[in-house]
Amino acid sequence: MRLVFLSFFTFIILTTQAQYFLYWNDEFDQTEINSANWTHEIGSSGWGNNELQYYTNSPSNSFIENGLLKIRAKNEPIFNSQYSSARMISKGKFEFRYGRIEARIKVPMGQGLWPAFWLLGANISQVSWPACGEVDIMEHIGNEYQNYGTFHFDSLGHRYHGGSYGLDPTLFHQYAFVWTPTTMTWLVDNNPYYSVNITNGIGNKEEFHLPFFILLNIAVGGDWPGSPSTSTIFPAEMQIDYIRVYKDNSELGLAENQESLVNVSPNPAGTIIKVQSLNSAIIKGITITSSSGQTIGTRAINLLGEIDVADLLPGLYFITCIDESDRPYSTRFIKE
After folding, report:
1. Is 189 left (phi over 0), alpha (psi -120 to 50) or beta?
2. 149-181 burial: b if 16+ Cβ within 10 Å, else e
3. What is the pLDDT of residue 292?
4. Within 13 A of 281's CA, how many CA atoms are on the CB side?
5. CATH number for the domain including 21?
6. CA-CA to 55 of 20 to 30 Å: which in 123, 219, 252, 300?
7. Cα–Cα distance for residue pair 244/102, rounded to 1 Å
């Protein structure tokens, strides 16, 4: 489901200094949840908050319908819990450091409901929480008409800070988080409402200079929202239209002078791309790398300067060309 068309090569300007382009995304346009992006956490341990739900990987609790990811909490006995729900994570599938992450979401209201779109440090298995760091981009509780944006960290024990933004959560809103080496900023519908300085790990914030992964879930009950009441409507459903992560050139390590010397067309690409040196150099070798850093392999280039990319999955790729003097030139392209 889309309200506007987004070109995969559209640049968005977040500040006057930085240009961001699409780095990773899930538009939830397939018929099933993409296992290359997501896994489900399963169980009912209270999750550190005395929550009441049991998380499952059942298609009755998380599924795609009409271009939307739907996470559904249900009032049904399951194992030792009264409620079932889903908690999806990108850990080990997609992790990132710095950039802009945004999602278009609407959430249910009701006493005891706690939907969230958030991030955890990818090193949580090694250092535990809160030393891994946590960023809550969207949290909503109960019947409140506001969104909470919060970050958690370890500074001689658990500490947290954040802000809130008034809205009607039952309508779709874009929840975003802009993360740079110096600041973290929370936004709703492109309106910033909270920001914090993290320069050089200031104030014991070192964890916010390491990779994080994405989480989506609906919790039921817990210390913060309290337990559901007889007025809480089940099933309760959070709907996610898309999640997109953007990066700027500096974070990808592509120098502007490199990119100016090689051109890829068409971009976005279909099955064939043409690679052209803009300084008349002869290209003798090409290597393609995925956005996660995995080397896809070398590609043969024909006399027309074309290479076959039909086998690549949709997404962002980097292409490195070697000329006759063994000089590398790098750029990027989107495979549709």
Report:
1. left
2. bbbbbbeeeeeeebebbebebeebbbbbbbbbe
3. 63
4. 21
5. 2.60.120.200
6. 123
7. 5
Residue labelled with tokens 């908050």: 49
CATH code of residue 323: 2.60.40.10
Q: 123 with 136, same domain? A: yes
Residue keyed to tokens 């958690």: 152
Q: What is the number of residues in the chain?
A: 336
Q: Is the separation of the CB atoms in 44 and 204 below 8 Å?
A: no
pLDDT at residue 110 in the model = 95
Distance spanning both ends of the chain, measured CA to CA? 18
**Tokens matching residue 278:** 């803009």
Predicted pLDDT at 330: 78
- Dihedral of CA 231/220/51/105: which sign? negative
pTM: 0.76
Asked whether residue 263 falls in the same domain as residue 243, the answer is no
Q: Are residues 29 and 44 in the same domain?
A: yes
**Amino acid identity, residue 333?**
F
Residues 105 and 246 in one domain: yes
* Share in percent of the chain as helix, strand, coil (round to 5): 5, 50, 45
User: Based on the domain organization, do 88 and 185 belong to the same domain?
Assistant: yes
Encode pLDDT of 25-51 as tens digits. Answer: 899 988 999 998 999 999 987 777 888
Q: Which residues are catalytic?
A: 134, 139
Q: How confident is the model at residue 15, as a pLDDT?
A: 40
> 173 and 28 share a domain?
yes
Segments of the chain with pLDDT less than 50: 1-17, 254-259
Tell me the backbone φ, ψ of residue 320, rounded to 5 degrees: -115, 125
Q: How far apart are CA 235 and CA 233, in angstroms?
A: 6
Answer yes or no: do 230 and 325 share one domain: no
pLDDT at residue 296 in the model: 83
5 within a domain of the structure (yes/no): no
What is the residue range of 281's domain?
Answer: 253-335
The pLDDT value recorded for residue 87 is 97
